[in-house]
């Protein structure tokens, strides 16, 4: 999972099955949930911040 911050910096976050956390990337709050088979569901207020 790659998050691009407002500053242009990129952070990578590995997610395990069932793992969930919230990340504030710049002015956006992001909730990432990896629920099954390595498929990731992402809830993002502005998708420009998410890849």
Automatic annotation (TrEMBL):
It comes from the Bacteria. This is Uncharacterized protein. It comes from Bacillus mycoides. The lineage of its organism: Bacteria, Bacillati, Bacillota, Bacilli, Bacillales.
């Amino acid at each position: 999972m790659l998050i691009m911050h407002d500053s242009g910096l990129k952070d990578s976050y590995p997610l395990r099955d069932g793992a969930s956390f919230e990340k504030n990337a710049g002015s956006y709050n992001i909730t990432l949930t990896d629920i099954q088979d390595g498929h990731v569901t992402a809830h993002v207020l502005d998708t420009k911040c998410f890849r």
